Amino acid sequence: MNKLIPKIYGQYFNFLALFSKRRAALATFEVFSKVRKGRVLPQQKTYLEEAKDQILEIENHTIQTYQWSGKRETVLLVHGWESNTFRWRNLIAKLKDADYNIVAFDAPGHGNSSGKNLHLPLYINCIQAMVDEYAPAHVIAHSFGGMALLFNEYLRPSDYIEKMVTIGSPSEFRELLGHYQKLVGFNNRVLSAFEDYIRERFGMEVDNFSSSKFVANNHKKGLLLHDRLDILAPFHASEKVHAHWKGSRFIKTKGLGHSMHQPHINEYIVHFLEDKPIIEKH
């Protein structure tokens, strides 16, 4: 049944495109941007409740922010697709031990924030609002959040941000769209309509939503972490970003998965923020 449902959507999109390419594009985008997981689970509630800071209004969404106060620079945490701020709990412990001021937020449709859908331009506006509000010196982002971070820095270079970290992040929107097309099974007529819709709504070509292009003129210090066996975001994505980002360091792992919560990974990140040597474990 789980394999059949996406194909039903695909056939529906194909049918719509026979009569209206725009309606097909709208339906395809709605399903693509729909958030199905990531709300606060019972075992996550207490941890997040204790750190709630304020609510920001962004594009008709209420965005929940969190803060763990410290005396050192501010670190902003940006979670990935169908996740929430709770995913950072292990890294937060390390950052607290180092006395950093830590802020985070739940993306639209995730955690304690409102909404049901999320797309890249909306996410970058949330990141920018957090940068404006908290002036972080460092930003750490996971998965889809990493792509959003690099896109936002490309469009609106920050005077505050000194260092950026991405963990298991995709690079090319074209690849994400190709995976979506294969999963759902819609035809190239629908794909063309989707691309036209992206161009009309966001003023960019699909192929220009590319982290490797976003970092071409990024002169800030960056740390990229990616596992070779990551099945959710391709390892070659960070390879490509690293090749185009002159100020980046790339740490490659094997067998740690997509989330990369391991203690030594968090230690790498803190050492990077503190300009300490990173001795990789193999």
From TrEMBL:
Coiled-coil blocks: none
GO molecular function, a single term: hydrolase activity
Keyword Cell wall biogenesis/degradation: no
Entry-linked Pfam families: Abhydrolase_6
Entry annotated with the keyword Transcription: no
Keyword entries, A-Z: Hydrolase
Gene3D superfamilies in the cross-refs: alpha/beta hydrolase
Domain AB hydrolase-1: 75-160
InterPro entries: AB_hydrolase_1, AB_hydrolase_fold
Name of the protein: Alpha/beta fold hydrolase
